[in-house]
Amino acid sequence: MNIQTTRQEDISTVKSSLKPMIEIRNLRKAFGTQQVLTNVSLKLYEGENLVVLGKSGSGKSVLIKCMVGLLNPDGGTINVLGNDVGSLTMNQLDELRKKVGFLFQSSALYDSMTVKQNLEFPLRRIKQQMKEQEIDDKIHEVLENVGLLDSLHKMPSQLSGGMRKRISLARTIIVDPLIMLYDEPTTGLDPVTSDEISALINEVQK
Predict the structure, then answer these.
(1) Which of 100, 74, 78 lies closest to 87, judged by CA?
(2) Burial of 122 (0-12, 13-18, 19+ CB in 10 A)
(3) How crowded is residue 172: how many other Cβ atoms within 10 Å of its Cβ?
(4) How far apart are CA 78 and CA 57, in angstroms?
(5) Which domains does the chain have, with CATH numbers?
(6) pTM to 2 decimals?
(7) Closest Cα partner for 7 from 205, 164, 141?
(8) Distance, C-alpha 173 to centroid of its chain
């Protein structure tokens, strides 16, 4: 696996005084006899983008799932927002995941829910103190940000692949996560739509 970091702003001169938002040390994960991750180490600071490059099956999705406790590594440590992921209880993991946005490769929208209901779901779970008008305002805000305000009452089956990715991105950012994790967000999209999704991701990072 080849890991490459790119930065939106130069923070290299002040890194020594910052705590990384994500720190992974010597991470290992295997499935049976297949070693997927071997001594992966990285640090990610606020304001940075980190890109994980690798061919299919090289462990990119496995790495992300380990970061949020969906998979248990065989060795090494993962620290996210000051939390040792491997030592957290299920309740503590749940609280941590509320601060981490995760855009799935498949978009993972609920097929039986409208776009509005898909966006309401995380707000009602995570932002329970929000009033109905605040929820509606937030939904309109994120849909406007991804250019799909007219899709409010559509079902996922009525959306193109690119539109589903946009709605999935809107659902991820609607709770204002501190960290965003993207699992191959442009897979299966045409070049034009891929560029649009990449531009949206960069805009969200700002």
Answers:
(1) 78
(2) middle
(3) 22
(4) 21
(5) 1-97 (3.40.50.300), 98-206 (3.40.50.300)
(6) 0.77
(7) 205
(8) 9
Mean pLDDT in consecutive groups of 10 residues from the start of the chain, 206 residues: 46 60 95 92 88 82 91 95 93 91 80 93 86 92 88 92 86 89 78 79 71
C-alpha 47/C-alpha 7 separation (Å) is 7
Q: Would you call 42 helix, strand, or coil by DSSP?
A: strand
H-assigned helices in 55-160: 60-67, 90-97, 115-126, 132-145
As a whole number of angstroms, the distance between CA 83 and CA 13 comes to 25
Name the residue among 96, 74, 94, 6 with its Cα closest to residue 44: 6
**Dist. CA 22–CA 167, nearest whole Å:** 26
The rounded distance, in Å, linking the Cα atoms of 41 and 16 is: 17
Question: What angle do helix axes 132-145 and 115-126 make, rounded to 10 degrees?
Answer: 120
